[in-house]
């Protein structure tokens, strides 16, 4: 089997995912999953599409991750893995879509406006 690649994005994070047949290794920026995402909740988020389909030990996943924070990176990686698995077997798409792993979360940070401290927050109004 050749290498299947897919892209996952979330907030400012971009995950380029390369999936090939193997024994279940997940490597992120040349580091193992457990070293890159130390929190168990983030490791769980990353493994969700693989565990849903029951193919955890069948594929090796190599990832180039950059941008954003660790939560956004984990969710971008989840989307990338789900897209790669659908490319391998299109019959899995309805199951992944029902779990919500095929939808790109479109929410982005709103830009800061001039004359304000943040995007929507205003300085305290003084009548006198």
List keywords for this structure.
128 residues; 5-stranded mixed sheet; Ribosomal Protein S5, domain 2; elongated; alpha+beta
Task: Provide structural commentary.
The chain has a single domain (4-99), classed as Ribosomal Protein S5, domain 2 (2-Layer Sandwich). Helix content is 34%, strand content 23%. It contains four helices and five strands. It has a five-stranded mixed sheet. A hairpin with a 2-residue loop joins β1 (4-10) and β2. α2 (40-53) runs parallel beside α3. The longest helix has 19 residues, at 70-88. It starts with a strand and ends in a 29-residue tail after the last helix.
Residue windows where pLDDT falls under 50 for at least 5 positions = none
Q: How many domains would you count in the coordinates? A: 1
Tell me how many strands there are: 5
CATH top level class name: Alpha Beta
Query: What is the average per-residue confidence, as pLDDT, rounded to a whole number?
Result: 93
**From N to C, what is the helix and strand string?**
EEEEHHEHH
- Going by helix content, strand content and strand pairing, the class is alpha+beta
Biggest sheet: strand arrangement: 1-2-5-3-4
- Tell me the overall shape: elongated
Cα(first) to Cα(last) distance is 73 Å
Tell me the fraction of residues in β-strands, as a range.
15-25%
Radius of gyration: 18 Å
Total of helices: 4
CATH architecture: 2-Layer Sandwich
Can you tell me the CATH topology?
Ribosomal Protein S5, domain 2
């Amino acid at each position: 089997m050749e290498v299947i690649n897919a892209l996952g994005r979330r907030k400012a994070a971009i995950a380029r995912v390369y999936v090939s047949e193997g024994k279940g290794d997940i490597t992120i920026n040349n580091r193992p999953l457990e070293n890159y995402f130390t929190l168990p909740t983030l490791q769980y988020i990353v493994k969700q599409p693989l565990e849903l389909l029951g193919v955890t030990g069948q594929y090796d996943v190599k990832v180039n991750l950059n941008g954003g924070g660790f939560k956004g990176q984990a969710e971008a990686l989840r989307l990338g893995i789900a897209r790669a698995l659908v490319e391998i077997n299109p019959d899995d798409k309805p199951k992944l879509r029902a779990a919500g792993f095929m939808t790109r979360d479109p929410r982005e940070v709103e830009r800061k406006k001039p004359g304000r401290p943040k995007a929507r927050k205003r300085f305290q109004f003084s009548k006198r």
